[in-house]
Amino acid sequence: MSRRRHIRRWITLTLLAALAVGGVWVAVQLTRSVRADGPDLCTADVSGQQFHLTPEQAKYASLIAAVGVTKGLPPRATSIAIATAMQETQLRNLNYGDSAGPDSRGLFQQRPSQGWGTEAEIMDPYYSASTFYAALVKVPEYQSLPLTVAAQKVQRSAFPEAYADQESEGRAFASSLTGQSPASFSCSLAPATGAGDPAAVRKELTTAFPSLAPEISGREVHVKATDSLGWAVAQWAVANAKGFGIDRVDYSSQTWLRENRDGWRTTQAPAREIVITLASGPGA
User: Fold this and answer.
1) In terms of residue numbers, what domain contains 214?
2) How confident is the model at residue 156, as a pLDDT?
């Protein structure tokens, strides 16, 4: 083989290897930042950064945030909780563990053998989130600790440094879903396949936010709330839109529409009331 052909072949192989490595890197980055399939995607857009979840993940992130808001905890607590659940289960309510903790269960992979509760209790995400927060607030000065340190003091993980990988995402989702960042959480969803049930939305809302008294009017659920609590409720509704067949959310001069892929838009929405509109069903 001539020297020129040898060099040409070496360059070609080097470029192919670089492309392969680059392709793997891109795939990993896309997997980390975009976890949704098809048209359904939820996004927190905070401080110029965007982070994404599937609607299923968004449901659990909003639940964790709602429990934190209900307990009167600071957004930092919710940041730690969401980041921990992202690292432990990718925000899934798992009914299995791993080799390091075969009896681990739920959003936070809590273990009955370590006193977190029964398996049935841990599989209840409200119970799981509540017990995580109860343990977190017992950590002295948890708000000023690095996230990975605070999370580890609660979880006692074999890989404590891993929690830091989710810190930016946890902070963004917590800021949106606790209502600290208005109109910053949105979901882009395919059309609802059936009619939404206002009674089911009211029931879940009163579980997530027990102090509220949602009222039903036709296909709408009305919730009186203001300031950050109002935005926590409004963005909870968006995060749960796919599961409950929610088509529209109105609050504080902003409207989220299921078919709008550009997030919230400025409207004449009421300032002291969240209005959640349910889908009527195909062809209705």
Assistant:
1) 189-278
2) 81
Q: In what order do the strands lie in the sheet with 185-188?
A: 49-53, 41-46, 185-188
Q: Is 4 left (phi over 0), alpha (psi -120 to 50) or beta?
A: alpha
150, pLDDT greater than 70: yes
pLDDT on residue 76: 97
Residues 74 and 153 in one domain: yes
Q: Which of 7-21, 48-62, 114-128 has the lowest mean pLDDT?
A: 7-21
DSSP string, 78-124: HHHHHHHHHHHHSS--BS--BTTBTT-BBTTTB-GGGTS--HHHHTS
Nearest Cα to Cα of residue 222 among 237, 241, 210: 237
CA separation (Å) from 45 to 14, 147, 235? 39, 21, 12
CA separation for the pair 216, 230 (Å, rounded): 17
269 inside domain: yes
Would you place residue 161 in the very low, low, confident or very high pLDDT band (cuts 50, 70, 90)?
confident
CA distance readout (Å), 220 to 172, 198, 202, 217, 228: 29, 7, 10, 5, 22
For 33-76, what is each residue's pLDDT tens digit? 344 445 699 999 999 999 999 999 999 999 999 999 999 999 99
Same domain, 154 and 223: no
Q: Which residue, chain included where needed, has tokens 């939305």?
A: 201
**How far is the C-alpha of 269 from the C-alpha of 36, rounded, in Å?**
29
Tokens describing residue 9: 């072949």
| Residue 39, SS3 per DSSP | coil
98 and 51 belong to one structural domain: yes
Nearest to 53 by CA among 147, 235, 185, 182: 185
User: d(Cα 160, Cα 178) in Å, to the nearest integer?
Assistant: 26
